[in-house]
Amino acid sequence: MRALFRVTGACMLLAAACSANGQSTMTIDIDGQPMLRKPVKSMLEMRYQNMMRQQLDFSCGAAAVGTLLRYGYGYDLAEPRIVEDMLRISDADTVVKNGFSMLDMRNYVETLGLRGRGFRVDYSALRQLKIPVITLLDVNGYLHFVVVRKAIDGRVFVADPALGNRIIKEEDFAANWNGLVFAIIGRPFDPNSPLLDIAAPALRDRTNAALAGGMVPAALDFGLIRMDYF
């Protein structure tokens, strides 16, 4: 004999709640009795998964740096703290008006014992990247920092502090990019970082072997030509 469950709109309740670790759960009630609890993620959570979202209109640079620090180097830092610390070593009025610069980023990561380097490269260098880098895009006249995770097969995978994880066509990216990248070096980038995972078969074979053992190689080993921008 088969058990028969009557499920009606009044009896079936979908409720999202935050647990102690901040993860959402979905509870399905049948005839008033909780029958199933399952961790779920909203579309918004998935869009910003494994990256830092900017909270202020001028803080894309801070959020981009925070994405690399948190998911590549293991620093447990929140964006408000990063913004506060970066403002201490920057011209606050200029930052509020124009946003943080790559020089501001360099000065900040050096307070953490890391090194920041800016490079002018051509697009082919993005295909050789072994670590994610920060780039500056011109989005309809608005200069905006994003993290380039990888460029492969005519697509650029970016963690965008304003729009979340997205994929940009190579030609669209190149048309809005000024050829500058900012890399954080000074300690090994986590080879298991989710920033490196774009489900591309060849990706993990080309991750951070250059940083194995804690060595800091020349910029060329990161897939960047050896040309300091600052």
UniProtKB/TrEMBL annotation:
InterPro entries: Peptidase_C39
Presence of keyword Signal: yes
Record keywords, A-Z: Signal
GO molecular function: ATP binding; peptidase activity
Name used for this protein in its record: Fap protein with C39 domain
Keyword Signal tagged: yes
Annotated Peptidase C39 domain residues: 54-184
Signal peptide stretch: 1-22
Annotated Gene Ontology cellular component terms: membrane
Biological process, per Gene Ontology: proteolysis
UniProt xrefs under Gene3D superfamilies: Cysteine proteinases
Organism listed in the record: Cupriavidus basilensis
